[in-house]
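During the first year of the project, the team set up a workflow for recording each protein of interest as an amino acid sequence followed immediately by a discrete structure-token representation. This format lets reviewers and collaborators read both layers of information side by side without switching files. As required by the reporting guidelines, we include two representative entries from the current panel. The first entry is reproduced here exactly as it appears in our internal archive.
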Amino acid sequence: MVAPSPQLKATISIEATSTSKPTAMKEIYLGRNPAWPTLANDPNSALDGSDSDSDSDDIFIPGLPTRFLYADLVTATDNFSTKIGSGGFGEVFKGVLPDNTEVAVKRISAGVGGSVRIKREFCTEIAVIGSIHHINLVRLRGFCAENRRRLLVYEYMNRGSLDRSLFGGPGAPVLEWGERMEIAIGAARGLSYLHSGCDRTIVHCDVKPENILLHDGGSVKISDFGLAKLLTPEQSGLFTTMRGTRGYLAPEWLTNTPISERTDVYSYGMVLLEIIRGRKNRGGGEVSSSGSSGSGGDFGYFPMVALDMHERGSYTELADPRLEGRVTAEEVGRAVKVALCCLHEEPQLRPTMATVVAMLKGTIEVARPRPDALGFLRLYGRGFVITAEESPQRGRRRQRNRHKQQWLTFLLFVYDLAGGFWAEL
């Protein structure tokens, strides 16, 4: 079923390390010719190098998982007959290996499979998730690279991604509050491990409900590491091209400042608000001056509404109305406060993911969000308007930074209108 290439030549050199943390720098060379991305000397070269496109299937990747033959994956998926997901990257199919293990096979779109960007994301995914293991990170079983064919083989998560359970249509089962918090805590644990459990800090760069997978029994796993960046122990941040998904982007993507693990924290805060409300943050409905929609049943830009309601100390209305009161104001308030702390404009003011886990579990006191550090969030929600009633008490800092924030908001609006075009550069 799984056969090594006849030209297999493996050279493994494991970096010396003074810790017991897993290292992502096992080097294995597979193929005939010089490899296209070389990650040994630069952990980020798989994404930022000037690779040339070719049809060669030669790969030089840290921590190489099992290499599958394309024919074997065709058999495993019954000729890709059961599609369980799709996106800009391609399609995902359910498969069964000869040992009866269920897997999910991601088939990169043939039209873009040979592009430099797709190759870099393909290699980064294997390099990052193929060398680390955690209960809240999806396991990469293997990959296939034959000519222009690019496929990734993951463990199968039978409930699919979080967005399916969270944003289900009419008649769909409703996630109860306790299960929502278990999902939030599981995802936070996975990110915490990426940020502090490995030799190199791993910044996911694309935290969103679609990249959080669920399985029966309460299993929660972070997936899709194609956009991830690695930081060396000496780095506190790095500059890189914009990446991620609009609606979850931290302000630093737009300010020409370094990204760090706190960039993931911001995205997680946006996801947590969606878990609380049970809908996308940028939903329909006109926002009234009080922050709620005219119908009273929905909100406009939910993060801004959550901030306004927090400042009033009113939390019950922020919960998913489908819960029909099966959650207390105290429980909702705790989650809202944690989410808003994650959305602080200055990265250093955001909590670590380990702190987020502790706050959500109630093992430490929940920090109070700082309204003066959430001006960017408020401005994005309200456009360019800063209301007069905010200026005397809460708006002093916002007034001092008004031009800066309006410029940042303008850039974010342009990004939204461009439909994510910048993220493809």
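The second entry, processed by the same pipeline in the following quarter, appears below.
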Amino acid sequence: MYSAEDRDIRGAEQDYKKLEKELDKKIKRTPTNHPGYNEYQYHLDSIEHDPWQLTSFLTTLYDDYTRSEVQGKLKETFKKQYKLTTWVEVQIRYKTVWVISPAGIPVPTQVPYEYKIFHTKLVNKGLEVVIREELNADQWKRYEIFQDTLGGRPYLFNGGLPPGGSDGSGTPGIDYQVPAEALTDSEFAAIYKEAQKYVGTPYVWGGSTPETGFDCSGYVCWVYNQNGYNVGRTTANGLWNKSQHISEAEAKPGDLVFFKGTYDTPGMSHTGIYLGNGMMVSAGDPMERNHADFYPEIQTQDEQAAWELGGKGYLSIQSCEDGWDYTIYHSDYSVMDGGQLNAPELTIQEAREQILEAHHMEKGRRLLQDYDAVMDKVAEAEELSTDHRPSTLEKLAELASNTSAPKSSARSAPEL
């Protein structure tokens, strides 16, 4: 079993993801950092890793580690996993120019020139390949045990929840009492009966059967396929695209509920089966609805995020070396306040709550937004503000006008 604290495990994972994001940014800055070329060509492997592999590897090496203790190993492993190389290819090409002949007639002429191509290549060796090369036989066996059991903490990544009952007893099963009237619907009763069988099954990323374990979409697909719906095996977003979309108020037991932003993926990222009274079951436990959400918010390893604050404005948070940078915006996306929270051990959700509490904004809903979309709106607001901001000449002209204009008396004239 993993022996490190959850916050250290998630913190180390966040630090590794930060290294990957910096690598991605470096590649995207290639034309800026290497200007003057005719063309830029990219030969790139994907930038990704399995967080379970990283955690099992660190636990095998260090057992009860802290986030700060593994920084050197994270950077060393990262350099072994990714190799970035660049080179320049020079081609001799020809272009047509018109040359005036002695007779004064324009003549097309082929002239050679150098056409320079800047190549960027990224090789992702694969994290587990690096791990396998570093561990000896005994360590590899221990690593495999951690992988098979997910270190006893299947809830750590990708929206999983701890196995066991929702009453904290550790006994698998749905502890929530489904409304009796809901069970009179034979269709829902069959779905519910099937769903009950697998609560507590280990959470496994990509899992789709009781034997392999389930992720959220694998669990929903299995339950519904067993009841004749034939939804196949798809993602949460795939299920969303197959579904008829209704409002939260219209949801009834047996419907699916969907969520965005539980981890870094486009579209819907999490799904579960609605049980009634604001409860759902999803890959592990029923989860109680809190305000507009159908489940307790999952702590993610995101490095940046933005939320709409109940119509009162927006909050954006981005990780930094010492913790979290944040900015609070008005509803028109103008800046209200900002600062830094020096607490790198917190998840982004925990940081958000501390920031809102410090600004006395802890009450009200937090609706996750697309971070880039919010930043685009902020940029537009700043540009609009700049466009409407008077220039120095305009200010001087206004000042001169105010100075030369006669001042009216504040006193009224006496009546005659």
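For the second entry, the following points were noted during internal review. The first helix runs from residue 6 to 28. Residues 6-89+119-152 form one domain. Both points are flagged for discussion at the upcoming steering committee meeting.
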